Amino acid sequence: MNLALLIPDGVGVRxxxxxxxxxxxxxVSNCHVLHSIPDELLPKYQTDFGQELKWERLAAYQETxxxxxxxxxxAYAHMQWADTFSMQNNxxxxxxxxxxxxxxxxxxxxxxxxxxSPPGIRMLDGWQTSVVTRLPEVEHYRRMFQETKPSVIxxxxxxxxxxxxxxxxxxxxxxxxxxxxxxxxxxxSKGRIxxxxxxxxxxxxxxxxxxxxxxxxxxxxxxxxxxxxxxDPYAAAELQWTREEFFARVGADLSRPLICYSGGDTGTAxxxxxxxxxxMELIRDGKIKHNxxxxxxxxxxxxxxxxxxxxxxxxxxxxxxxxxxHAEPGNWASVIPSPDDVQFxxxxxxxxxxxxxxxxxxxxxxxxxxxxxxxxxxxxxxPPPHGKPLWDYYYRFDHYRPIVEIGAARFARSREELAEHxxxxxxxxxxxxxxxxxxxELEVALPIGQAxxxxxxxxxxxxxxxx
Length: 467
Known about the structure:
By secondary structure, this protein is of the alpha/beta class. It contains 20 helices and 15 strands.
């Protein structure tokens, strides 16, 4: 198998370069990694691989106004037709930015509104393909693939527009293409998949059913259940620290419970710093028992500045900034993780006694290790930042409904309930254990640690290489 691997962002680096995937793939194939890693950081990620791997930067993609309008129109048409709860909210977001951006967005919304049906979406997709195929980036990749002769193109993330030229070039040459649906919320919360891939790799049967529902032109044989490599490190024995070593590394007291507060990004969770303050006040006031200590881990894309005041007022708060490099401040896609962060998170989710977050994927991370989770479901400000109470907003999102319905976490709809749920879990961590197990089984089909191997096997099948 000759594999061309497209890594357009930092999450792809975490899932497919830092973990075991690329090592396993390079043992059975020739790998050409097309990436977005800055040149000065690249040696950090090349060290575990020999000279046989070829590394090359993804070509810069300069969208024209027409191609940009069509991309946004596809997203709006798809979201209006699919009409999930979170897509409804996305469509209502105000249009901001320069007059040029606002003009493009308004034009795209009008076109998307008029074409919000499977036939209309197919028409828009055809127009976008026709326009982008004529761009020089497509010819660049066409020449590259004619020279390197990949037997399959695999993209680590289905949404970045930068992957469209490479995908169209491959299709014009008859090279099969595949993408990984990188997060559990993407099919029900986000816009349209960025390119017309031939195959789709998903976490679970649940995600497979979602893809077939929202992309009716995709046939079942093109959707492959492979699990997700982002959780593979949790099963890697070589990454594990003892509880004593982990507590020593973060400066925590081994004799006291450790609660992890996992922050969201500033757009998703604008009141995280206020919720952390409320939590610290509850502990200082004696409302939370067992004398727990709090470790705050901001989201990797958050610079953490908004927590400065609460850290000053509560010096006992343990602050653990993620080991991600902000290669281009303000650009989410350019935030690149380090191998150290993957190991740290594997041990944090294993050794923390409880997790608190706002409707985050971290609920699943901690459930994998059978750690209880309390979800923040109350607002601090009035009116609430999202225009409606958190409970009526994030906890109605389609991807998060199973957690609510299964009862895999507890939901704090007030400060008092936050203290109540934390006390209950610290007293008995086994509460909701069966529900956490059911959640993991529902969302992640394969046993933890086997996804990378399954993906390699699936790509070999797609490429036609079976021996």
